[in-house]
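Subject: Sanity check before I submit

Could someone independently write out the structure tokens for this chain? I want to compare against mine line by line before I put it in a report. The sequence has 209 residues.
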Amino acid sequence: MIKNIFFDIGNVLIHVHPDRYIQYLADSTDLPIDVIKEAFPLEVHYAYERGEISGHEFFLSFRDGLPQPCCLKESDFWRGWQKLLGEETEVVSFLKSLSANYTIWLLSNTNPRHIKDELESHVSFLEYIDGAIYSFDAGSRKPDSAIYEYALEQSGAKANESVFIDDLIDNINAAEKQGFLGIHYVGEDQLLEDLNNLGIEINKRVALV
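---
Independent answer below. Compare away.
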């Protein structure tokens, strides 16, 4: 019996716009977009998401990777960072219905800035969420097995009673290895069909209220 549903955040509950972030930084530094993309320190970003470094250290790593001397201000860096997150997706519209019958958790690779500065003050769905597993708290990020183990430990859920929904197939495969039922999110209609196939029905009337 399914009792718990774990949702990824980015591109499942909230649209993510890396193009807006990159464009803002290009405008702030008067550098070409390709230079901004090449300078982005992916492994340092992962360390930031795992809570291993501070936001300031993340900024310095990015700034120091740009052509020098560089005029990028830390305030502009974080202003651009805010632009990554967009509007909520249509999936949010039926969280209310799901929360009436299932325990709802977030399971996301994310960072303190987006959670504290954006998510906690700008989204509507947190009232339907029972708890959240963030990579920077777990010290691990998807698809590492440790974050799924941490999620089960923190939530008290059993993997075989839990569904995990994510837009990245590698994250789904890793969750399934830990015993979760996985749904690869590609769109709202497909998600509704996949949930229905697992015996999870959405009350559309509740969803629209």
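---
OP: Matches mine. For the report I'm noting this point. The domain at 4-15+87-208 is CATH 3.40.50.1000 (Rossmann fold).
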